[in-house]
Amino acid sequence: MSHPFLSQDPLIRPHRPMMALVLGNTMLSTVPGISGAGPTPEKTLLTPILDAELVTTGAITSVPARPNTPTGCPTPATITRSMVELTGIAPVLINAGLAHTPTVPCLDVYGRPGGDPRKEDAVPQVAALFERGETVGRLLSQYSDFLMLGECVPGGTTTALCVLRALGYEASVSSAFAKNPLGLKDAVCREVLARIGETGAGEPLEILRAAGDPMMPVAAGIASTYAGEILFAGGTQMLAVAAVLKALGKRVPRLATTVYVRDDPSAGFVRTVADVGTAAYFVDPNFAGIGHVGLARYCIGEVKEGMGAGGALTLAYLMGHEPGEITRKVFDFVSKYA
Amino acid sequence: MSHPFLSQDPLIRPHRPMMALVLGNTMLSTVPGISGAGPTPEKTLLTPILDAELVTTGAITSVPARPNTPTGCPTPATITRSMVELTGIAPVLINAGLAHTPTVPCLDVYGRPGGDPRKEDAVPQVAALFERGETVGRLLSQYSDFLMLGECVPGGTTTALCVLRALGYEASVSSAFAKNPLGLKDAVCREVLARIGETGAGEPLEILRAAGDPMMPVAAGIASTYAGEILFAGGTQMLAVAAVLKALGKRVPRLATTVYVRDDPSAGFVRTVADVGTAAYFVDPNFAGIGHVGLARYCIGEVKEGMGAGGALTLAYLMGHEPGEITRKVFDFVSKYA
């Protein structure tokens, strides 16, 4: 193959690896056109719960739903689940603030869904969520020496855009849509930045309170106290968390995501990673050559990432699984739904 | 010392020990006189949350409360917390069904508080809770090779009595009161058994549905799938879970608890342990000789056990801490509140 499976070697060989996924909602995902993570804007609120169910049990049985996007792409959660089956590492699911009750056990910090940052402070309980994230980070430290930390927040690329810009980055963000609705996201972001300007929020946690989502303070808190090596699994949303950590003067984790995020020209991901002063590893699961029409759509810019999929692929590789074995496992799993 | 710290050596030397505590409520604790785990019957519903806060953070700050019983005994949670500080092992807290929202992160299975089994099925969602317990057991297996599993359910000795008797044991149970309100518990139990007789509940999970509390199916599920060594931390409540596992034909864990449970003449603990066909290890933290008047009251039969205290002391010992060091640590911690 001409392209390496992983863009660079992060030089991490975990002995006791753990994966954790921080789930949350933001009311922004119910704004028509913002989020591609669900069949309708309202139903995007259910996506983290269905993803959690799929990753934990291997199937969605609580509602009649298939883990495919409206255009027939397997969801990122199917990729994450296939890696759970390959590696035996089941992620710790963390409920940072969901609109609906999960159908599988979650480590719950007892937050609430994020509000619409155009109208109100999005995460009023940001200080408590950061602190509970710190508690979770200490807890997970006891039971692992490496943490792959990802997220699932429909609409979260828009909160990420708001947070990155409020922190001073000239950022753009990625999208689950092939055609990134950047005009809409920009419009939301301008309104949010205007409101932040009025309230005078300037400290990193104040910015999260005003414009973020509940995943962000929880993930930042976890990264602040986690004692072992940590990689952030994801694209622009986890990058926003990394930027918050930098602004707080804390350790800034590196990222692991898919080449589809890197290759999204609208996101400018690589530039913002450099601006934040961290590094990203890009995994190429060769979905173009796998022989699955839905997975191939990732390569033309659909879905791209989510539910820690890029990190799950990376973790399997770091644990010693061969690229061919990894790609075949994804193909076999998603073929059950084809 | 004439008495050994631990009654027998369980021959377990954990490499990757984990402790987990299953928290739940039963409406029986609000029946006046049933539970000593709280300043008033209604406030017993808060006890698991305050215990969780103390064990996790080292202090109760969410409400103005001291971790002492009305008679001035340090609560069992203070013992558990002191062992967290000694060993560095922070327990995984599991929310099986609580009346109030926890103030610290919990692994939540999204159950509900148990109903009053005299009037209604106590745990209607028993099958889902057992299954989610199985999921938790698989998850915890990945990150540890030994599990000390305890509980905190105010009023739970009464549900334990109902379950043990419904399973056919001539059991009595222990109590946090020095004077065990056995007449009251017996009266509740007769009503519950009469109702079970009418409904015809006979299978172990049917009995839990009718007469148990949410902790029981969750703990039973965890023990069913946990891959490593497991000890149950607690007295009659965990023994009821062990009896359910035996009735289900599953592995029956051994127990670790305090000598104060063994020496409660009203509980007949040792006999029921033998009837269930398992073994129990009894830890003697020498609270009589420690020089703390509140801890000494354990020796005259108050409190006795709870929040995995006996298991936490046992775990510290199995991890190589000396008895004198363990007892001194408990004394130092509770003295902060004296």
From TrEMBL, chains A, B:
CDD domains: DMB-PRT_CobT (cd02439). Signal peptide: none annotated. It comes from the Archaea. InterPro entries: Nict_dMeBzImd_PRibTrfase, Nict_dMeBzImd_PRibTrfase_arc, Nict_dMeBzImd_PRibTrfase_sf. HAMAP family: UPF0284 (MF_01086). NCBIfam families: nicotinate mononucleotide-dependent phosphoribosyltransferase CobT, PRK04447.1-5. Belongs to the UPF0284 family. This is UPF0284 protein DIC75_12120. It comes from Methanoculleus oceani.
